[in-house]
Design brief:
heterodimer, A: 112 residues, alpha+beta, Alpha-Beta Plaits, three-stranded antiparallel sheet, two-stranded antiparallel sheet, elongated, B: 173 residues, alpha/beta, Rossmann fold, 5 helices, 5 strands, 29% helix, globular
Chain lengths: 112, 173
């Protein structure tokens, strides 16, 4: 057996596993937005889509379409959203299906 | 662009299976197609002691001929087409391509005379890693997804906090 493996066992060094826990501070990293759907209005959705510098947000009828692949996590939508938009903290987003990164959020609030 | 395996579903499955066989020994070549270098600085950190990708059996190689997988960053500027396609053709089959970062996934830059705007408009992409830049842990997850050692859970993710909460609480009848 490889000596580096035995040496590792003796010292109690984990040499082969994926990180046991994700570091807690990674939750604070800039990440894609999440939404409180009942507080979203079409007017707000339009404004969010307009100001998104990465082109990750768009409104389609009564849905806000969020492309997680395009999102840069800049947080402008969070600033503009007034509580309807928050940092999702989701960053482990690797996928082989590009379409799975496109999320649809129903617009639950009314304009008046 | 020549692919040895046919572009059928079975061929695709076979190719994925072959990539999974790389499992614990996979050599990576990074290709920059006009990125701002933020993705590169995160990629570089994979080799630092904290993330230490070698313990998982991943290695960076400077030569595409030695590589099993290309990690492509940047919005695929047209000026890099030649280099990108040469690197892809020089990588022996079976091979995989990972698009790294928001630019490579179609964000920020749209298609115009200077750039394609997304890597999958030039090369077949196997795994997409979002982020601007993706953190090293996200890159590591992407690599493990590429070789089938971690599941990708993106399809189950909901960005709607209201329905997420109602799903979490047990419904009364």
């Amino acid at each position: 057996m490889a000596s580096w493996f035995l040496r590792g066992l003796r010292r109690g060094v984990v040499t082969t596993r994926y990180p046991k826990t994700i570091d807690p501070w990674t939750r604070d990293l800039p990440a894609a937005p999440a939404f409180h759907a009942h507080r979203l209005t079409t007017a707000l959705a339009d404004r969010l889509a307009e100001q998104c510098p990465a082109g990750a947000l768009a409104r389609e009828e009564a849905e806000l379409v969020v492309d997680l692949g395009r999102c840069t996590g800049c947080g402008r939508c969070v600033d503009l959203g007034g509580g309807a938009v928050v940092n999702s903290g989701a960053f482990l987003l690797a996928t082989s299906n590009r379409a799975a990164l496109i999320k649809r959020v129903p617009i639950g609030g009314s304009d008046d | 662009m020549i692919d040895v395996l046919p572009e059928t579903e079975l061929g695709d499955q076979l190719r994925r299976r072959a990539i999974a066989l790389f499992g614990r020994s996979l050599h990576i070549r990074t290709v920059d197609t006009g990125s701002c270098a933020a993705c590169e600085s995160e990629l570089r950190l994979l080799a630092a002691p904290h993330y230490d990708l070698h313990r998982l059996g991943f290695f960076f190689t400077p030569a595409p001929r030695h590589a099993d997988l290309l990690m492509v960053t940047g919005p695929a500027v047209r000026a890099a087409d030649n280099a990108l396609l040469k690197a892809y053709d020089a990588t022996p089959d079976p091979k995989a391509v990972i698009a790294v970062g928001a630019c490579a996934l179609g964000g920020v830059y749209t298609e115009d005379a200077l750039l394609h705007g997304a890597v999958d408009r030039v090369l077949p992409v196997d795994v997409y890693i979002p982020g601007c830049p993706p953190s090293p842990i996200a890159l590591l997850q992407g690599l493990l997804v590429a070789v089938g050692r971690l599941e990708d859970r993106v399809a189950g993710l909901s960005l709607d906090l209201d329905t997420r909460r109602s799903h979490a609480t047990p419904r009364s009848q």
